[in-house]
Design the sequence.
């Protein structure tokens, strides 16, 4: 059966917080950004999915948590938006421009995401998936494999190395992230690893060394690491917590200064070079 015909078999159902549904033709979308230079390689169009089950202590987008609070959009409307802005993006290699799906957590609306990625690849557009990995486990192996088959780059948030720390930081175990990592290895999908560095929490030598060894272990297992980005914690999302009346765990934590972030990157790079001298990816 042709792909277009198959898609018609998917149910048309608006996603809600109670169903966290994966079989829908309507996505719940937080926002669209036409020209971003910080969401993947080159100039990107970014589709921010609404809805995220995690509650990361450092999240600066709590307004993206509630799945039903987004704008319902079908794939066709998003593809039309992508086409409209393609005229402004630079021509060049496949990575000179592209589309990034981000969130929220795009994997929360997995069937919709798959259909969208499939349509983008039909247009020969470079696709990047910015994800925490939740909620994927072996139960939905095929679905995630299909998504990765339409994904040129995975941008994966590490959050925390040890499972107990991950759970404390996000409210969930690290199993979804680890499963995405395993499938990225299996499918040889290139990965950019991203990690928020937070004063007083994970910028000391012990944490950075542990992070370097964790990355080395995944590299040794065959993970195609192209880039590691240490993202300095900031307080730009604090007002959103106040507006939404949500308690903010890191209310008192200061933003990491540029100088502190640069110094942290230098120490981390030394630990990584010691752990895996042959890993030559970009670190920023
Ligand atoms: S995964 Fe992203 S959107 Fe979800 S809570 Fe964490 S930082 Fe926020």
Sequence:
């Amino acid at each position: 059966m042709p792909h277009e015909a198959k898609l018609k078999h998917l149910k048309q159902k608006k996603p809600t917080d109670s169903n966290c549904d994966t079989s829908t033709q309507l996505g719940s979308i937080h926002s669209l950004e036409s020209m971003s230079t910080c969401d993947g390689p080159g100039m990107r169009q970014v589709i921010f999915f609404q809805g995220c089950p995690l509650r990361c202590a450092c999240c600066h987008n709590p307004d993206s948590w509630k799945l039903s609070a987004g704008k319902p959009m079908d794939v066709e409307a998003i593809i039309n938006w992508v086409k409209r802005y393609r005229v402004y993006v630079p021509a060049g290699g496949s990575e000179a421009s592209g589309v990034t799906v981000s969130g929220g957590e795009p994997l929360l609306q997995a069937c919709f995401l798959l259909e969208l990625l499939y349509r983008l690849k039909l247009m020969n557009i470079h696709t990047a998936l910015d994800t925490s990995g939740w909620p994927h486990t072996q139960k939905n192996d095929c679905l995630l494999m299909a998504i990765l088959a339409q994904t040129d780059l995975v941008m994966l948030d590490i959050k925390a190395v040890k499972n107990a720390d991950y759970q404390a930081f996000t409210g969930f175990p690290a199993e979804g992230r680890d499963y995405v990592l395993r499938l990225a290895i299996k499918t040889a999908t290139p990965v950019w690893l991203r990690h928020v560095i937070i004063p007083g929490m994970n910028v000391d030598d012990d944490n950075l060394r542990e992070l370097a060894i964790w990355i080395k272990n995944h590299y040794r297992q065959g993970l195609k690491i192209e880039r590691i980005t240490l993202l300095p914690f900031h307080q730009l999302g604090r007002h959103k917590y106040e507006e939404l009346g949500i308690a903010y765990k890191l209310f008192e934590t200061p933003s990491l200064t540029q100088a502190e972030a640069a110094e942290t990157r230098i120490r981390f790079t030394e630990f990584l070079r010691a752990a895996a001298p042959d890993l030559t990816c970009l670190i920023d």
Observations:
- The pocket of iron/sulfur cluster is lined by residues 52, 54-56, 59, 61, 64, 103-105, 132 (CB under 6 Å).
- Residues 1-24 have pLDDT under 50 and may be disordered.
